[in-house]
């Protein structure tokens, strides 16, 4: 159960990045009041922030119940999810080396979790 929740945390981290990317494509970034207002009222930016906020508290719950050396490496799956979500949602290209990296990350996480 905790492992599945840790995978969910990794997914939420990646999805938050996708929402931030979508928000940044629609909102300029700067430090004037007007630009900051647009930035923080952007629904994609807000959604990304909410995902990170929710993920953080879920992660706190997991950390209170699991060994950090065992569960923390699961968060590296966020790299895998980020590439896959970028392909699906943002229509980004996935290169051979990225695919190879995904396989290596998944193998690494599997080895760390293996008892």
Folded structure, characterized:
With 115 residues, this protein is an all-alpha fold. It has one domain. The protein has six helices and no strands. The chain has helices spanning 2-26, 33-41, 43-63, 68-71, 77-89, 96-113. Helix 1 (2-26) packs across helix 5 and helix 5 (77-89) packs antiparallel against helix 6 (96-113). The longest helix is centred in the first third of the chain and has 25 residues, at 2-26. The two termini are 16 Å apart.
Provide a concise account of the structure shown.
With 115 residues, the protein is mainly α. It is built from six helices and no strands.
Keywords:
single chain; 115 residues; mainly alpha; 78% helix; 0% strand
Helix and strand layout, with pairings?
Layout: H1 2-26, H2 33-41, H3 43-63, H4 68-71, H5 77-89, H6 96-113
- Mean of pLDDT: 93
Q: Beta-sheet strand percentage?
A: under 5%
Order of helices and strands: HHHHHH
Proportion of residues in helical segments:
over 70%
Task: Please state the structural category.
Answer: mainly alpha
**Radius of gyration, in angstroms, nearest whole number:** 16 Å
In angstroms, what separates the terminal alpha carbons? 16 Å
Low-confidence stretches: none
- Total beta strands: 0
* Main sheet overview: none
Number of helices: 6
Total tally of structural domains? 1
Shape: flat
